[in-house]
Known about the structure:
The complex is a heterodimer of chains A (278) and B (309).
Chain A: H1 5-26, E1 31-32, H2 34-39, H3 41-51, E2 66-69, H4 75-85, H5 124-138, E3 145-150, H6 157-168, E4 174-180, E5 183-184, E6 187-188, H7 189-192, H8 199-204, E7 208-213, H9 217-229, E8 235-240, E9 259-260, H10 263-277
Parallel strand pairs in A: 2-3, 3-4, 4-8, 7-8
Antiparallel strand pairs in A: 1-9, 5-6
Helix pairs in contact in A: 1-3, 1-4, 1-10, 3-4, 3-9, 5-6
Chain B: E1 3-5, H1 6-20, E2 24-28, H2 32-35, H3 38-43, E3 48-50, H4 55-67, E4 71-77, H5 78-83, H6 86-94, E5 100-105, H7 123-128, E6 134-136, H8 141-153, E7 158-161, E8 166-168, E9 183-186, E10 191-195, H9 199-212, E11 217-221, E12 224-226, H10 230-237, E13 242-250, H11 255-262, E14 270-275, H12 286-292, H13 297-308
Parallel strand pairs in B: 2-3, 2-4, 4-5, 5-7, 6-7, 10-11, 10-13, 13-14
Antiparallel strand pairs in B: 1-8, 6-12, 9-11
Helix pairs in contact in B: 1-8, 4-6, 9-13
Amino acid sequence: MPVSTDKIAELERISKKLRYDIVMMIGAGKPGHLGGSCSIADIVTVLYFHKMRHNPKKPKWPDRDRLLLSKGHAALAQYAALAECGYFPKKELGTLKELGTILQGHPEMRRTPGIEAYTGSLGQGLSVACGMALAGKLDKKDYKVYCIVGDGEIAEGQIWEASMMAAYYKLDNLVAIFDKNLVQATGPIVERYDTNPHGEKWKAFGWCVLEIDGHNIKQIADSLDEADKVKGKPVMIIANTVKGKGVPFAEGKADFHHGIMTQEQYETARQLFEDDCK
Amino acid sequence: MNMQNCRAVYGETLVELGRENERIVVLEADLGKTTMTKLFEKEFPGRFFEMGIGEQNMVSVAAGLALCGKIAFVNSFAVFAAGRPYDQIRVSVCIGKVNVKIIGSSCGLSDFGDGATHQGIEDIAIMRAIPNMTILSPADGIETKKIVRAAADYQGPVYIRIIRNDVPDVTEESQEFKIGRPSVIREGTDVTVFAHGYMVYKALKAAETLEKQGISLRIVNVSTLKPIDEEAIKELADGVRGIVTVEEHTIIGGLANAVAFVLRGWAIPIETVAIQDCFGQSALSYEELLEHYGLTDKAIIKAAKRVLG
């Protein structure tokens, strides 16, 4: 369904809330995956609050659309979205990584309502998503499986095993979103371990490739609709994003892949979002 | 003794399960002609998935299928099934107790011709280290069938070793198989021999020889390597004068370690028949290779005599 101007404004507000929650979850003086979580915040927002068929009251509903973060370290964005949807109380966000919490450092489906698998050992989530899509085909169900993959992550060989398999089995119920935030843990991808070209690779592996601005709500929504029309192929949406998007001091910085905000930085970010979210 | 081919039994059992339960799906990494999943492929092409030669993707895909209600059997040679996708088994499958069955075919030295690269001799050690994993090693064709059925009924990850070659039946058709429970194959009073897989047969042969020399061996088939039934192991080790463990696996991390750990603190001699800390190699016959690595009834006899002093 085309996304209305009002809806776009609402989604933009929600994505700011998610970023605010991400910053609050990490807090000052403690490390957290700020960069990768913020780069996918808009995509996650559009999926949960516009595109996906899901029911927070029934997280195990068999016909639900599914979202897996193959780049599991960006879990904070998904946790914030799940809480905002009502999968669990928002106060749980304050327990991130505490002993016994439902919100682990990386996604764990047995602990967190709404999480679909165990991901974060990079390269595996896309394959698990393929298995879910394959099951959907087998059971003649119409759910979609969405999977967010990182541009650093695709150095993992398993990604390419999965990409061949998804094309071979014509998994057109699988939509992957490529978070092209250009930065891996130790620096810019082009300087550290260049995985380019991206679109050409996925095309060569038999995928339908779309390319968007991963922070433009309308482009994200439209591309997800476009993906629905593709038959006989999995879809890869290359989303050009900024690592740490929305948090000025973290934008484009490898240090904030898993960085520590100073008290001052934390207050700056908090103030920024509080003004924004008013 | 009646001989059966364990992988043929495995393939046939999978077909039976497929007929009984629509949730059974089979994934293969281009070894279906050998692992015998080709039988399932023939009867249920819609539920058979060739994954190409990519074991890591195969395991994670199986997890995805299982998370949507399927009972997924993943197949390859033991060396690849346990070795290549270790982290996928750990993360995609075991942390969440996902209902995936990993089949390690051509286990141990049973792929005698292909050499060290293809001989899975450390698979049990790798699998034992992963929490939530259940490990089963059938001794013969009769038990293979029961174990595959038990694995399908069990909710959660299971690793099963499948022997490549024809082996004699040593277990009883009438004996019920229950995950976790070791079974006494032959009663004896002097030494308890704990064995699994084809080595149960070797232990029986040793027991027959020693009986003539007045030494009585109790032969126990430990077909569940994990979880190990500590109480049963202690009970079966009690009252004899020594223990021997026998396995077609490296001396590190398998049955030898499991039994020694259960009996820690006991004042009882334990001897181990296993592959030493070394790789296999090619040979023209299975028996020749087993003999080279000391996995024979003679070695078991020697070990039994050593524990008796």
